[in-house]
Amino acid sequence: MHRQLAILPVLVPLVAALIQPILALASPAAAWPIAVAAAAVTTVLATIALAAVLTGGTIRYPLGGWEPPWGIEVVLDPLSGFTVMVLAAVATASLLAGGPQARAYGAREPIYYALALIVLTGLIGMVVSGDLFNVFVFLELSSIASYALVGSGGGRALAAAFRYVILGTMGASFYLLGVGFLYAVTGTLNMADLAARVPDVSGSSLYLGGVVLIAIGLALKMGLFPLHWWLPDVYTYAPSPVASLLAPIATKAAAYMVARILLYVLRPVEAVGLPVGTILAWAGGLSILFGGILAIRQTDARRLLAYSSVGQVGYIGVGLGLANDAALVGAYLHILNHALLKAALFIAVGATALHVGFRTGGLGRGMPVTATVAVVAGLSAVGVPPAGGFFSKWYLLQGTLEARQPLLTVVILLGSLLAVAYMYRLTETVWRGQSAVPRVTPEAQPAVLISLVVLAFAIVAAGVGNTAIVSHVLTAAVPSAR
Amino acid sequence: MNYPYWAAIALLMLGLYTMIAQANYFKKFIGMTIFQSAIILFFLLTSVKRDATLPVVATPGTPSAAMMNPLPHALMLTAIVVAVATAGVAFAILVRLYATYGSLEEGVIAARVTAEPHEP
Amino acid sequence: MSELVLAGLLVLLGALALVAVSAADLLIAAIALGAYGFALALVWAALGAPDVSFTEAVVGAGATTVFFLAALLRTSRRRSNVPNPQRLVALGAVLAVGLVLLVATRQLPLWGDVGAPPSTHVSPRYLERTLEETLTPNAVTAVVADYRSYDTLIETLVIFTGGLAGWLLLARPR
User: Fold this and answer.
1) Integer Cα distance of C29 and C77 in angstroms
2) Looking at the structure, do residues C4 and C70 belong to the same domain, yes or no?
3) Fewer C-beta neighbours within 10 Å, C or N terminus of chain A?
4) Cβ-nearest to B96 among A144, A151, A354
5) pLDDT of B104-117, one tens digit each?
6) Which residue range is the domain that position A185 belongs to?
């Protein structure tokens, strides 16, 4: 049973997704509860798994009993366990909050939930996988489901979805070609085996080509500047429940893959001194500035959040690029914090109106709870204690000082200033502003409120408990801990 | 000479260019297909062994150097299937896109999208 | 397998790709893409990969062409000839990528080398032990259905997802 903990978080959403079409015929009303229950069970399993890993060491589960590198293995270590828990928990909140609006799918509601659960299966499967090609298959699994979910919004969402298909496939294909190069020079796909062979092959141009291609492919999926162009339209026009599901978790899973493959498997900085880390950190810095500046200029609330996401992912990029212990802890902590705050914001905006133009602000005047949660999430985005975002930025700042990159220190601080500007604008205009039309949205439905309140508590808990998270989980997750 | 690899790179570049530069969405799809096939060609080229036969063990005890490497074959089976699933979703989106906007050209759709009223 | 045959097939491949990419009538482009898929199947067979060849023929050439034609029937055969302003950016990006690839592949093992890492590490076991461990003479089947069956599980889930996507996007609401 202990070893199975590694694979169960992948299987539970998978099976739940398979059940959904049956429900479509038999009992459509059960689709939502079953989806939320499946995600909740996955969260519980992921938490138990993480605890098991922290006490008992890394869990490796070779599927079918075939030892790697001939078979595929699933690996649960502190970092992957932590990421799976974050993905599952935030997905549960999103699925719960998306319920009322998912009714709009009518008879196809269970299909929506099936695809949403497949997205979750894909992301979790990707994170726990110990085989480079297996990562590709799971990545494409979650991507294909995402394309369909985004496209289900009709109208502008279709154009956004097609661009997402083209760019997403480009990214995944670059990743696959990179894996092909590494395979050509090492003969293996297993991460641990590959990591052991890196010293022998790091002089080869194929190794360098593999590193570059994989980095480009994953950076595109992560939404790091300048490979982010699919992101704004997709997050703006996708149906609200879809955006609330994808925005918090899809880019984080890609960020995890960047960390895992570049810092633990390929280690190009260590092996050949390639300035991959510097490029990554600067792409992150540019993301922070670009995302922040563009967010301020938006008049559509969801598009503002989309550019904010580009900016916030930049923080993770900076942390992964600098790669010293403090920076990595900051990056990993930000995976948690950003997932929580983005979910809360997308859900809050979605509950207020599908697209809230600032010309018709003040729609949210009748939603005190939603407004409060949005403010808490905004504080986390800016980096105000005790919200969690403050602590991830604190560690990142320490990381920039340790790496002697004062310019990046300035960029991180600038990012917070920009965030103050756009978060204030968002919360003031949507939930407090003058309304040009007499209507006011009533307070959100119970399911949505529960999600929002839990997320708000989690945001604060992540802040207050950050030392516990860092000392018990993240310190064990950094490469130097092995 | 490694000329087959150059063919793969050439096809990849053609596919990539088509994906970005062509305005018609069907053409972008064609570019995507060629792009993906170039990657499959690359993988399969790494599986070739000179004077080797199919990776089927007809007589037990055949040395492995006499048979092609089965691992890339298996991987590419999966890659082809993934590509066709992507194609399916892409076409579904295109059909709905045409039904909504009456065109599948990037510029035309962008113009019709900005022209449509979009108020909350 | 004659190198001449392979070289000829690669040239055919290039020609069909160019037709598919440049044809003004989308129906011609679709058929050309189908022919391209068939030529690919021949190339895979020439490279000693019959399983991949069957799959490409049925799925790549067959199913994709059918989907393409079905989509064309419900949309339009025509495409405009307005030149896309992104052409130059595209050219730049593609040349950059091509350069990276040419540089990176300089140190590729010679094509067909029996001593190259993919042929010596991991894969020999599949060929040497498939009969005793999986009772299957076809090593590719053994890898797909046994050694790496987890990939195949997810691959079938991908097809299922494609079907769900079609249902979600195309089903007429009652």
Assistant:
1) 10
2) yes
3) N
4) A151
5) 888 888 888 877 76
6) 3-481
Domains defined for chain B, CATH in brackets: 3-49+67-115 (1.10.287.3510)
- Same domain flag for C120 and C75: no
Question: By the CB < 8 Å criterion, does B30 face chain A?
Answer: no
| Chain A residues lying within 8 Å of B98, measured CB to CB | none
User: Is A356 part of the contact surface with chain B (CB cutoff 8 Å)?
Assistant: yes
Residues C10 and C75 in one domain: yes
Q: Which residues contact B34 (CB under 8 A, 6 or more apart)?
A: B11, B14, B15, B18, C17, C20, C21, C36
Report the number of distinct structural domains present in chain C. 2
- In chain A, residues with a C-beta closer than 8 Å to the C-beta of B35 are 170, 173
- CA-CA distance, A350 to A108, in Å (whole number)? 20
Dihedral angle computed from the Cα positions of residues A81, A87, A88 and A93, in that order, rounded to the nearest 10 degrees: 150
In angstroms, the separation between the Cα of residue A107 and the nearest Cα of chain C is: 8
pLDDT digits (tens, 9 = 90+) for A35-48: 999 999 999 999 99
Residue C103 lies in a domain: no
**Residue range of the domain that includes C53:** 1-85
C interface toward A at CB cutoff 8 Å?
100-101, 103-109, 116-123, 125-126, 146-151, 154-155, 157-158, 160-162, 164-165, 167-169, 171, 173-174
Q: What is the CATH number of the domain that holds C40?
A: 1.20.120.1200
One-letter amino acid at A401 equals L
Do C121 and C67 belong to one domain? no
State whether C123 and A187 contact (CB < 8 Å).
yes
Q: How far is C96 from chain B (nearest CA, A)?
A: 10
Q: Is B111 on the interface with C (CB under 8 A)?
A: no
Specify the DSSP element, H or E, that contains A122. Answer: helix A109-128
Distance from CA of B46 to the nearest CA of C (A): 7
pLDDT at position A292 is 94
Residue C15 forms part of a structural domain? yes
Instruction: Identify whether C97 is part of a domain.
Output: no
pTM confidence score: 0.95
Over pLDDT 70: what percentage of chain A? Answer: 96
Contact between B40 and B82 under an 8 Å Cβ cutoff? The reply is: no
Nearest to A366 by CA among A381, A353, A380: A353
**pLDDT tens, A360-374?**
566 777 778 888 898
Q: Classify residue C132: in a domain, yes or no.
A: yes
User: Which residue in B has a C-alpha nearest to residue A148's C-alpha?
Assistant: B89
> Average pLDDT for residues A246-252, to the nearest whole number?
95
B15 touching A, CB under 8 A? no
A-C contacts (CB, under 8 Å): 121
Distance separating alpha carbons of residues B108 and A437, to the nearest angstrom: 33
State how far residue B115 is from chain C, nearest Cα, in angstroms: 20
Domain count, chain A: 1
ipTM above 0.90, yes or no: yes
Sign of torsion over alpha carbons A358, A362, A364, A369? positive
> How confident is the model over A472-476, as a mean pLDDT?
86
Check whether residue C119 and residue C81 sit in a common domain.
no
